[in-house]
């Protein structure tokens, strides 16, 4: 049953998602005004009618709803890339993770959802304003007991040790390698997101100085398929490039 103040998702007749709170408030949409007080006490799956008689389906938010509605400051890591990190590192319940930079906290939230209830994520962010926004996003996603933001330059050092995974999405990941070597447990993974080949070259030059193995780099391309009655085919447009993902394992 939905309680007063709980975060909910309402889905309109065109599939549009509204992330709101069940409270004494009104939601104005192109399908009319929804009285959010009506959602209190209802079960997920219930239908609420707007003042125009249009249906809205009430749901509890999934992590993907929070990620979709984040307050975004820098570019966030997209699900296609975040998903590869799981596939290549096996991060899961109980994992201890350091992430940098936090940015809007999208990757940190994605990872926090996977490592709970016993694991944790510490996300380093050098900019105080971004650290605050990331913290707000993490709180909205209900993960503030699992994911913490640290307002710190990760190029200086990593405070935590015995880590299962370090994820890096910042301009000079090669400067983090000495700290990563110290902070990862033997067999722990490093996952680095870099937009340009030049970043990769700098990173690979530094790898040789440290004890990492199974180093590999991939690019993840996703094509959406448009399914229609008489013409099913890949969509004309796609996101051609976001970045390269490099994985390595500490010996
Ligand atoms: N992965 C994030 C986006 C990261 S954008 C997400 O999914 O939302 C890169 C972030 O790294 C920026 O916010 C930037 O301020 C931060 N950053 C850059 N250098 C840093 C450093 N040395 N230590 C910590 N954060 C840093």
The CATH superfamily of the largest domain is Vaccinia Virus protein VP39
Apparent shape: globular
Order of helices and strands: EEEEEEHHEHEHEEHEHEEEE
CATH level 1 class label of the largest domain: Alpha Beta
Number of strands: 15
| CATH architectural arrangement of the largest domain | 3-Layer(aba) Sandwich
Q: Helix/strand-derived class? A: alpha/beta
What is the third-level CATH name, the topology of the largest domain?
Rossmann fold
How many domains, in number, for the residues? 2
Write a structural description.
By secondary structure, the protein is of the alpha/beta class. The protein has two domains: 7-61, Vcp-like ATPase, Chain A, domain 2, CATH 3.10.330; 66-250, Vaccinia Virus protein VP39 (Rossmann fold, 3-Layer(aba) Sandwich). It has six helices and 15 strands. A seven-stranded mixed beta sheet has the order 9-8-7-10-11-15-12.
Topology, element by element:
Blueprint: E1 7-11, E2 17-21, E3 26-29, E4 32-35, E5 47-49, E6 55-59, H1 63-68, H2 79-89, E7 96-100, H3 106-115, E8 120-124, H4 128-140, E9 147-150, E10 163-168, H5 177-183, E11 184-194, H6 197-207, E12 212-219, E13 225-226, E14 233-234, E15 244-250
Parallel strand pairs: 7-8, 7-10, 8-9, 10-11
Antiparallel strand pairs: 1-2, 1-6, 3-4, 5-6, 11-15, 12-15, 13-14
The structure holds S-adenosyl-L-homocysteine.
The site of S-adenosyl-L-homocysteine has 21 residues, from α3.
